[in-house]
Amino acid sequence: MNKKIVTAFYLILNIFFSIVIVLLNKWLYVHTGFPNITLSMIHFIMTFVGLIICERFDVFSIKDIAIKDMMLIAMTFCGFVVLTNLSLAHNTVGTYQVAKMLTTPCVVIMQMVFYKKHFSMLVKLTLIPIILGVVINFYYDIQFNIIGTIYATLGVLVTSLYQVMVNIKQREFQMDPMQLLYYQAPLSAIMLFFIVPFLEPMEQTFAHSWSLIDILMVVLSGVIAFFVNLTSYWIIGKTSPLTYNMVGHSKFCLLLQGGSLMFHETLAINQVIGITLTLTGIILYAHVKMRDARTAIPSYKEKERKPLHKV
């Protein structure tokens, strides 16, 4: 099959699954009240099962690593999934999605403060419209609530920490994202298994009369969560950063539309301004980062070709 057709197929699948998982999870929270942390634990379990099947079909190979080296990243993985799901449960789909955009400036700031990484002035300037746009959207959200804002803020912080840690672990252990996820998913599921009885008493979950549709929706949510990860890793590995960023922008816009249609979420004009600012900042950030990367590679090659000075 033509490579372009295969790539287009995976891109469409990733956009579809990414939109469906958010809208399906929101539906579960709104219409069934399914426990958030329990749902996250089910996602981890089903992701691990999916990874075992993928490994059997040689989609990736397992890399041996000490469990203790994976504990911290599994904890942050737990935190980022649970907190972003809680943000989705307590905010509109639009506000949830816009809040996630804060991850970009947060990661940049973390790398600057804790790892002394240098970013160009243009990169730093692109963060201003992102942050300003998110603040405007939250301020004018007609469903604004303190709890939702707290979960969204914590979710951004933990997600940013997780992304920084994934980057470090991949370089440290020479592992790809699927190899990392193979360890993260079961460890995170075990951690949540011990947390759930305290925060979401399991007897209440089992005693509740869930309909067949509710159960099918939960199982479907877990399956789709796995396919989101699978298609995302394929896109990252097989396409350019520009393609991946453009896919992200299209998901952002389609999710806003989906939230409006499914949950009757209306946007105030000031929210539209905030979302436009955020999206503009994200696009500019991606453009500047890729331009910096293109200019850095030739200069590095030029340095490599330069002859050594004789002593």
Q: What attributes does this structure have?
A:
311 residues; mainly alpha; 12 helices; globular; disordered C terminus
Description:
This protein is mostly helical and 311 residues long. The chain is built from twelve helices and no strands. Helix 3 runs antiparallel to helix 7 and helix 3 packs across helix 8. The N and C termini lie far apart (57 Å).
| Cα gyration radius (Å) | 21 Å
Count all strands and give the number.
0
Mean pLDDT: 84
| Separate helix tally | 12
Quickly give the structural class.
mainly alpha
Quick overview:
This protein has 311 residues and is mostly helical. The chain has helices spanning 3-32, 36-56, 71-90, 93-100, 103-115, 121-140, 146-173, 177-199, 202-207, 212-238, 241-263, 269-305.
Topology:
Blueprint (H helix, E strand, L loop, with lengths): L2 H30 L3 H21 L14 H20 L2 H8 L2 H13 L5 H20 L5 H28 L3 H23 L2 H6 L4 H27 L2 H23 L5 H37 L6
Helix pairs in contact: 1-10, 1-11, 2-8, 2-10, 3-7, 3-8, 4-11, 5-7, 6-12, 11-12
